[in-house]
Amino acid sequence: MMALTAVSIDSMLPALPQIGSELQVQNANSRQLVISMIFFGLAIGQLFFGPLSDSSGRKPAIYGGLLLYMFGALLSMFAVNFPMMLTGRFLQGIGASSPRAVTLALVRDQFSGRAMARVMSFVMTVFILVPMLAPTMGQGILHFAGWRAIFGSFLVMASIALLWFGLRQPETLAPENRAPFTVSRIWQMTQEIIKNRLALGYTVTAGLVSGAFIGYLNSAQQIFQEQYALGELFTIYFGIVASAIGLASFSNSTLVMRFGMRFLVRTSLLVIFTLSLFVFGITIFFVEQLPFWAFMAYIMLSFFCVGVLFGNLNSLAMEPLGKAAGIGSAIVGSLSTLISVVLGTLIGQSYNGTTSPLIIGLMLLTGLSLIVVRWAEAGQDDSSL
Prior knowledge:
The chain is mainly alpha-helical.
């Protein structure tokens, strides 16, 4: 199910020029909205499906989300104009928010602390490794059947996920632990989470880090295919970058047991900020456009650290919320995604034919993240986390 979300995003990247051409999109940067809209749906949908999973159980909430995802895929597949395409993508995002949010609750139902971070690293590894193959899959379908068939592949994968999940995954929320689905409860829990310094701080940090990542996703096709003129080799290099994130996320399952989540978060943020500041200086004083090898070295080192951050930030934000895992994961996921999609869209729409908007975005957002983390962890004991 985590792979489904990643595939829905990354397999569309090679198809953006064709979609823009067929649906008469005038501004090249506007094509990025095919990516951004699914994130907007993810942000909004989690606020509904998380609390629903606390009330009805984890499995029914995921069933509903997958069915809505399939409807959105159908709408996009038969889109006759760009607004119809974006509506379908928005519905896909809302539907995909169910497995995205409830997966966190499923894990939190059974694990906590560093053990939870270890499991989440495996989950996030799947989410991150899929981009190594997804653009190539999209490129292959594009050659043989056109961009609309990519949405058909989403329908097939969602059907398999729905069947597999229904048969193999036990319900993790016992009936006696369920809570009613009411607006007042959602508001009450939202206030409690916002007042929790650690949960709020790590949620905001997750949003800032993900914002830089979404900015990369939005502009990756233009950077690789147009700026560096890689053509169809784009999918290979995109996969190489994804491998750095996946390797880091997988390695984190071991690193977190030795060093702890907080140490890894602070170190990773500092590395990205320092590296981005250095590269930004190079682009200001020496070359406007980095050589391709230099850009790849920079982005892979930075995104290795991003891979370390993903699982740890989610786990740290969820750690104080064990008694309200469903709604907790919903608010954490929704708030962080909303922050990230606004910032990521801003970075993407700022694309000007150079890598500068992406570099500046990484530098500013990780610098701000260091400040937020310092505020959240003030006076806290690192020994257990």
